[in-house]
Amino acid sequence: MYLVLQRIKTLLEDCVNGSKMWLLMQSDSVANNFHELTAELATLLDILPVKDVEVSEDVEELFLLLRKQCSQAKVFVDERDSSLRLEVLTMLDRIQKEIVPDHSKLAEILDFLGLPNSLSCKEEIENLEDEVQNQQDEKAKSDVIALIGLVRYAKCVLFEPLTPGSDSKTKKSASDVNIPADFRCPISLDLMRDPVVVATGQTYDRESINLWIESGHSTCPKTGQALVHTSLIPNHALKNLIAMWCRELKIPFDTAEGNDRVNGVIKNKAALEATKMTASFSGEQNGGLPVNGREAGAIPVLARYLGSDVGAGSLNLQVNAVTAMLNLSILEANKTKIMENGSALNGVIEVLRTGATWEAKGNAAATIFSLSCVHSHRKRLGRKTRVIKGLMDLAKGGPAGPKRDALVAILNLAGDREAVRRLVEEGVVDVVKEVINVLPVEAAAILEMVVRRGGITAVAAAHSTIKKLGTLMREGSETARESAAATLVTICRKGGAEMVVELASIIGIERIIWELMESGTVRARRKASSLLRIVRRWAAGLDGGFLEGRSAVATPTSSSSRVVISV
Questions:
Q1: Over the stretch 466-517, which tens digit does the pLDDT of each residue have?
Q2: Which of 291, 415, 470, 498 has the smallest number of Cβ neighbours within 10 A?
Q3: How many CB atoms lie within 10 A of CB 257?
Q4: What is the pLDDT of residues 261-279, one digit of tens each?
Q5: Is 259 a residue whose pLDDT tops 70?
């Protein structure tokens, strides 16, 4: 009885917290699910010995009424739902044929679904993006992506309308109008010509996201989440809707004008991130070191001052040399030069391991981070035992600043599966457990990446890690709580029932999740909602993986099963 009621509760929460547009599309399936659960409840009520429970007459009367209603229940789908579902499907079909949707009909659909303004549409888009990650079937993913395009279009034309202006016959360029945010690529900020969806459900222009991935990144630029795969799913519906919008405003769509000049925005975000990390090189001329790091031949010269044999009087020289090497590594061309220069690369690694000061070691770690922004360099660096051990030692024993530099470099290297294996062998999970209270955001991000890249076994073996993340989700900063929730969702999805059991055993975990859903960032609230559904699905026995291994995880007399009742 308890399990059936939990399943009903979970289904209700999924309907309330998920995408309204997707719920409309799944109305028949959801109605069948409710009917099946009602039928199961009716069977249980039939065999419940209510006479032996010794309840009052009023309660018994209510019980009999409930049993009668459950036994007579039939599958029910509101005719209005069916009608609107057909209208949405027809609208999507017409969009594929590049026929402009009826705006009044679109407004009617959104009003019925409770999406009356731009903010509610934004939340609906985010829910649909989450739904992309939940779908395994490719057809279902394509359907959700089409709905994302439709809601983006509706948000723009209904709640953020742009009128052509007085001279509507004159052709404009994309730079002449204020392009809606939903039609812009988050990377280039330009009008999307070929919108595609990545594994996290976010939408980008194909050219921009390809540049991002090819430069060695394995995360979603907008959310920072690791990409489970780098496949790009075209959003044909959104592309057609943008094309129709452009035709209405007399904007050429087929050409890719302006893609390389977007308000001076740097497309290569790796260079931007590396620039933020660097410190300015000292203005002094120390031992003939170049002030301008871009001078020809600077790399071999700097390499001479990176060895472990620097004297006590040359400590500043080593710090300045490795700092200059860090500045040089900002430029893509210089990354390759450093990697190809054996003495320079070995010198940076030597400073990382045996540097004369913590500052020198920290800047060496930051240089490793900068170099590893290129995918091929990341793979090469991740295979070097000295790099892994050097970063791990610095993360364990360094002060806060250098420790953070080491953790950020470790996070970047963890984008490669082979590097994750080496990191796990060197005890990265134990290191993260030690530093999670000091640097929670970096530590949580590393855990999430390790799990995504095949290190789930190591995390699963360290059960206390789950509890530390639970504590962080309750007591950490806003960013740390968001990272902890995202990491726990990944761990539970990848680690299966045992990880969920560990999470469910945390005292007051539902209250912690609810607090995050009420007060966290937008992404934190979405992750907390997913986490709550995972816990409740497990508790209700809806998780297929849990049911298969249930005898090994939670028996009727085990402490785990008692957790189910407390949840």
A1: 888 888 888 888 888 888 888 888 888 877 788 888 888 888 888 889 888 8
A2: 291
A3: 16
A4: 333 333 333 333 333 333 3
A5: no
Any domain includes 494: yes
- Residue 195 neighbours by CB distance under 10 Å: 28
Q: Are residues 254 and 273 in the same domain?
A: no
Verify that 421 and 458 share a domain, yes or no: no
For residue 219, the cross-strand partners are 226
Question: Domain ends where: 207, 240, 262?
Answer: 262
Q: 11 φ, ψ to 5°?
A: -65, -40
Long-range contacts of 289-293 (CB under 8 A, 24+ apart): 289/317, 289/320, 289/321, 289/324, 290/324, 293/324, 293/327, 293/328
Number of domains in the chain: 4
The answer to whether position 136 is within a domain reads yes
Pair 393, 541 in one domain = no
pLDDT in tens, 343-388: 889 999 999 988 888 888 999 999 999 898 888 888 899 889 899 9
Flag whether 552 is in a domain.
yes
Buried b (16+ CB within 10 A) or exposed e, 449-475: bbbbbebbebbbeeeebbebbbbbbbe
Q: Of the candidates 216, 234, 262, which is a domain's last residue?
A: 262
Residue 83: inside a domain? no
Residue 307 corresponds to which tokens in the numbers above? 């060895």
The angle formed by the CA atoms of residues 290, 294 and 298, to the nearest 5 degrees, is: 50
Q: Assess whether 473 and 557 both reside in one domain.
A: yes
Are 520 and 508 a contacting pair, CB within 8 Å? no
CA distance 507 to 470: 10
Residue numbers of the domain that contains 393: 268-426
- pLDDT, one tens digit per residue, over 227-241 is 878 888 888 888 888
* Beta strand ranges found along 171-267 (DSSP E): 195-197, 203-205, 233-234
Residues 284 and 401 in one domain: yes
Three-state DSSP string of 44-66: HHHHCCHHHHCCCHHHHHHHHHH
Burial of 486 (0-12, 13-18, 19+ CB in 10 A): buried
- Neighbour count for residue 214 (Cβ, 10 Å): 11
Same domain for 273 and 400, yes or no, is yes
Residues 6+ apart with CB under 8 A from 559: 505
Pairing of strands 233-234, 203-205: unpaired
Geometric angle at alpha carbon 17, from 11 and 23, rounded to 5°: 70
CATH number of the CATH domain containing 240: 3.30.40.10
**372 and 504 assigned to the same domain:** no
Same domain, 385 and 419: yes
Among candidate residues 491, 546, 496, the one with its CA nearest the CA of residue 6:
546
- Whether the Cβ atoms of residue 529 and residue 521 lie closer than 8 Å to each other: no
